[in-house]
Amino acid sequence: MFLVYVAVIASAWGIRQAGGLDLEEFFSLVGEYPVFAPVLFVIVYALLVALLIPTLPVNLAAGVLWGGLWGGVLATLGSALGAALAFQLSRSSVGKPFAKKYDNGLLKWIMRQIDENPWKVVAFVRLNPAFPSGPVNFIFGLTSINFATYSYSTLLFLFPPSLGVALIGSEAGNILLQGEALDLFRILSMTLVGMLILLVGYWSGKSLLKKKQA
Q1: What is the Cα–Cα distance from 130 to 146, expressed in whole angstroms?
Q2: Which of 70, 103, 128, 206 has the greatest CB tally within 10 Å of its CB?
């Protein structure tokens, strides 16, 4: 992991020194390779997720490059692929230590929820912005949740936040690149997307807490 970090940083520095980070040239390359560019983007996104590198700027960039919808789809695919990779790395190297029995009440309740409602727990974590996505991917690998359930629920419930960020990136790109004014409709649409994500996360957390109290 450390060597990959060093390689990524050195490569980015070298490209910048060579003048390879020209924005217009980058957009033209994406246009010239309509199939290869999205595939490469998803692979790079997945590696960033697996290496615990923050991906919010990359998610925003997806909206700038491919628009809100397709940018959100590509960001979701990359994020889900990286999450699956991190899960497998954690599971294969450490195993499932969190699947053991604990005396601690909170840990016992969390492990029981994962056993009884695995996809609901994943949904709550993915839709709640309070949880850092990178470390969570590795932590899930240490629990008893199976890979298939983790993968499909991660892919499904990562889409709303990824779409929201890509939509914001798309609108920001229009303003920066085309000089368009940010009208009332765009403000409302971006605000509604953010509120929807927060409300779904709040609702999921509230239902889980009610079960715990019951």
Answers
A1: 24
A2: 128
The whole-angstrom separation of Cα 81 and Cα 194 is 24
Q: Which two tokens stand for residue 137?
A: 């991917």
Query: In the chain, how long is the greatest CA-to-CA distance?
Result: 62
Q: Where are the alpha helices (DSSP H) in 1-35?
A: 2-17, 23-32
| Predicted TM-score of the model (pTM) | 0.69
Q: Say if residue 209's pLDDT is above 80.
A: no
Residue 175, domain member (yes or no): yes
Q: Residues 59, 169: contact at Cβ < 8 Å?
A: yes
End-to-end CA distance of the chain: 43
**78 neighbors 137 (Cβ within 8 angstroms):** no
Task: Note down the domain range covering 181.
Answer: 33-213
Quote the DSSP letter at residue 98: G
Q: With b meaning 16 or more CB within 10 Å and e meaning fewer, what string describes 64-92?
A: bbbbbeebbbbbbbbbbbbbbbbbbebbe
Give yes or no for a contact between 163 and 63, defined as CB atoms under 8 angstroms apart.
Answer: no
- φ, ψ of residue 115 to 5 degrees: the values are -70, -40
Q: Report yes or no on 26 lying in a domain.
A: no
Q: How many domains does the chain have?
A: 1
What is the gyration radius of the CA atoms in the chain, in angstroms? 19
Domain annotation covers residue 28: no
| pLDDT tens, residue by residue, 179-197 | 444 454 555 555 566 666 6
The answer to whether position 67 is within a domain reads yes
What is the DSSP secondary structure assignment for residue 69, as one 8-state letter?
H
